[in-house]
Fold:
Amino acid sequence: MPISKNFANRLYPALENIASHFQTPFHIYDEVGIRKTCEKLQSVFSDLKSFREYYAVKALPNPRILAIMHDLGFGFDCSSIAELRLSRSVGARGEDIMFTSNNTSGADFREAAKEGGCVLNLDDINLLDKLKTIPELICFRYNPGSKRTGNDIIGKPAESKYGLSHEQIIDAYRQAKLRGAKRFGIHTMLASNELNYSYMVQTTQMLLDLITDISAELDITFEFINIGGGLGIPYLPGEKELDIEAMGKEICSLFKHFEHQLGYEPALYMESGRYITGPHGVLAVTAINRKEIYRTYVGVDASMSALMRPGIYGAYHHIEIPAKLSDSDTETVDVVGSLCENNDKFAIQRDLPKIVDGDILIIQDTGAHGSAMGFNYNGSLRPQELLLTTDNTVELIRREERLEDYFATLEFEQDLLTL
Ligand SMILES: *Cc1c(COP(=O)(O)O)cnc(C)c1O
Structure:
């Protein structure tokens, strides 16, 4: 979907200037838009006793971006050692971090315990036996199985590898309590890119019902419920935005009802990634080739290593050519990278203004699961990342990958095992 007017108004007139200074390709993120969305999310839950967003680091793992979130009081949702380190590098400590790992290794747990630890969100009941000490605050990830349908991107909960089954969940808290846990939270993550807010309301209801049952059985209370991420953004032009106000209102009223029944109100946690940064980033590329065979191909100076979503999910990413916004003359083209992979396409049979070599294309909604998902197949290197700050400065926040990075893993001491 076309980027916000505010972002376009600040980016487009400066594009030639930015491109001649930094060179394409680059992802560029909009600090103003990111802050606005963060504040919006916080505002719809202002009636709750306590709300906190734990930004899903995997969506845009750049410390400069994470520092913005930290500044706004957000925590971080991590699932790997690198993500823990990134979060701590911007100052997150202890309960600022939820460690939502799965298939967790000993090394993961050791890292999680460093620097004041973090909130452990356990993905399996057996992990209790693998922890040296049970932390005072413990959270389990719940998988409702066939009780919920899931959505298209994330799939059916009953087929997903995450979380504890319904049958295990009470026993997990019972065991944690027996072993000394004193504070409890619960987590689930059932949606991805979901535009229907009711799904999140149902998830909230599901967790509130569940903690009611667990509390009754075990005589414990819950400090928080974490309803996960998965809020959707409109990628297609004309697609309706998620109604975040209505979502906030309905979720708040579920919490008030819970408080009325149970006499206390837990905190609400979320861990959105896409919703927070997705619409506030674009990938700027330059057209370098034009090829006419059975179709017309516009070749650009980046490949799917910079943005995997079209190639792996067939996802739509809107494209604009800022210098040709008012051109009414369009043609149908595929916009492609240079990998030897025919799904290395940013757009397929898309109507765009007539593109010539040197035109700058703006591939939109790359602020989450964009650069982060990139890879090095075919020797492809990922582009730099820039930030358009609130005071209209363009700041380099990650340099481009270089050949020396690619070859770095080929520098090692010889190691032979004779059999
Ligand atoms: C990926 C992920 C998120 C963020 O998902 P979005 O679709 O970006 O909101 C949150 N929590 C967990 C556990 C995840 O794996």
Notes: The mean pLDDT is 96. The first helix runs from residue 5 to 11. Residues 41 and 269 are 11 Å apart (CA to CA). The chain has two domains: 31-277, 278-402.
